[in-house]
Design a protein that fits this description.
The chain is mostly helical. 85% of the residues lie in helices and 0% in strands. The radius of gyration is 27 Å and the shape is rod-shaped.
Length: 130
Amino acid sequence: MTGTDLNISFQDTQYLSELYGKLGSLQYDLANFELIELEKRLIVLFFVGILGLILGLILSAVVDDFCEKYDVKHPGNMLLAYWVVWTAVVIVAYILISNVIVSFAERDILREIEATEMAIEAIKMKYGLL
């Protein structure tokens, strides 16, 4: 090879172009990660909220059945305390789950960027451009 006379195949040129496009898109996603984070957190909020409400109602019914079956009287404040504690449990679950999901999303983007950069370097090495 001399000067600008590169003998790169058409397929490799196409693939290199696609890889650079993908790399740009991934870098944009990483630079604007707040939008991805917001989307992930809203999805987790929806599912944890619905699941928390369903499980809370089921557990409340079980406790009421238990009290009725064994003729135990519970004050009205007990139900309020139950829902306050259950809400705290659901909030903690949301925070933990959403943090894990967001870190997985960030890690996936970083891994994709690294894999794309490695593929670009492999093509460049194939033609001695590095």
